[in-house]
Amino acid sequence: MRLVVFGLPLLVVILNWLWPLPLPLVLKFIAAALVVVAMFYHYWSRLSSGSIFAPEFPRLVIILFNWALGAILFLTLFQIGLDLGAVIIALATWQPLHISVGARETIGGLAGMLAAIGVANALKVPPVRDVTVTIRGLLPAFDGYRLVQLSDMHISRLFPAKWASSVVERTNAAAADMIVVTGDFIDGSVAMRRADVAPLEHLHAPDGVLAIPGNHEYYFDYKDWLSCLSELGFQLLLNSHVVITKKTDQLVVAGVTDRSAPRFGEVGPDLTAALEGRPTSAPVVLLDHQPGDARAAAAQGIALQLSGHTHGGMILGLDRLVARGNNGFVSGRYALGGMTLYVSNGTGLWPGFALRIGRPSEITLFHLRAEKV
């Protein structure tokens, strides 16, 4: 599979697109070398930090790598489409069809432009997206409750302190009753990211700032990150819950660890433990980084599950493949019996493939409404 993922674009772009262009041989060799260098971006990332998930390059270099990867991806698809079209026309007319230089230049320009748009979209500080959710059994004191979800910030060299500060400012301006973060705070160790995550200390809401880990926290000194996030003021829900009380009405917010935890010798998600001792009359909002187990949560009577992890699929078309790896859940709202699942597109993005087309990032502001009887 890895050979197909990396080998096919190299063959298509270098041999099928670049080589037929009327360029000096030396320029073709230089361009081919640059394509190879771009395709090995994750290898260079591993050399820079010890992990493919944390490219420790200047931000501009990371942006250029992501643009190049995107351009190669789109160019591969366009060139295959061009080749297939030429074959179909040739078979229909029974005459050989030569693909013109102009056609090659057009798809090259289009691929570069789409990649640039995709990277620009990924780097934006996301807008606040308003979502209203009706919850069965929500008591009067919580009718109209406002809850902000951040997810998949992936704070890194690509999404540094300045970006994090802007996210904090925009989130606080939403004036929510509670802020939750559904994992994947970072890419990098505490030593690498301490200054970049520092702005998160300024997140504030009357009922607190709650969080769960995502899979990326386990890739980088999990226990150190738990300690760091606690120092920044996050209340971590590790297979546990809190009860929010207003007057005599209650709302439960529960959280579970990530399903990748056992691979790292840590405790995996345990919804039964997370709900143990909760007031059974209060509806439950569940924080679970990955949405794949949502049907099991619905079967346990959860009212609202907030997840992330998928980044919304990043690119229209690619989102269908991402959905297949997450039990069909990839972006937005899903109704599962009496439970609403919401899968955030993510606030940031993994710096190893930072492109968004048709799947914008988001800071999500939920307005909880009581079901009308």
From TrEMBL:
One of its GO terms (cellular component) is membrane. Keywords: Hydrolase, Membrane, Metal-binding, Transmembrane, Transmembrane helix. CDD domains: MPP_YkuE_C. Residues 146-312 form the Calcineurin-like phosphoesterase domain. It comes from the Bacteria. GO terms for biological process: lipid A biosynthetic process. One of its GO terms (molecular function) is metal ion binding. It holds the Pfam family Metallophos. It comes from Acetobacter tropicalis. The keyword Membrane applies. InterPro entries: Calcineurin-like_PHP, Metallo-depent_PP-like, Metallophosphoesterase_sf. PANTHER family: PHOSPHODIESTERASE YAEI, TRANSMEMBRANE PROTEIN WITH METALLOPHOSPHOESTERASE DOMAIN-RELATED. This is Metallophosphoesterase. Gene3D superfamilies: 3.60.21.10. The chain crosses the membrane at residues 25-44, 64-94.
